[in-house]
Amino acid sequence: MGYRFMLDTNMISDVLREPNGEVAARLEAEGENPVCCSIVVASELRYGAAKARSQHLEQRVEVALSAIEVIPLDAPADRYYAAIRNDSAAAGTVIGPNDLLIAAHALSRGLALVTNALKEFCRVGELAVVSWRTG
Predict the structure, then answer these.
(1) CA distances in angstroms from 29 to 24, 32, 34, 65, 122, listed in the order given
(2) Model pLDDT for residues 105-119, shown as the tens digit of each residue
């Protein structure tokens, strides 16, 4: 598939909270083909629903993930992970472990990461980072 964007957890969560909001509208405008998410994002979403102990939320997460291609984490993401982690540690700008995996995954696939965590992900030099929220 010819994906252009990898959605971060907070973008899919935004759609779950606001199905008629601006992120959902942008997702609809882009169509389904240019977007995907990482298995790391799917894991975070499923964990959040399990932690909330909400069967309704679990069902909504499953519906959302069934509409978006969930991409497995594979090589060469490991090489990007090593480089990003080394660079961020050397610069003293540590990135959270899951965000580090998500950034490496997006870079390894040549995808722009759609997120609200701009401050965190903009630390990753070569990563294209965008937000679909204006506020």
Answers:
(1) 9, 9, 10, 18, 25
(2) 999 999 999 999 998
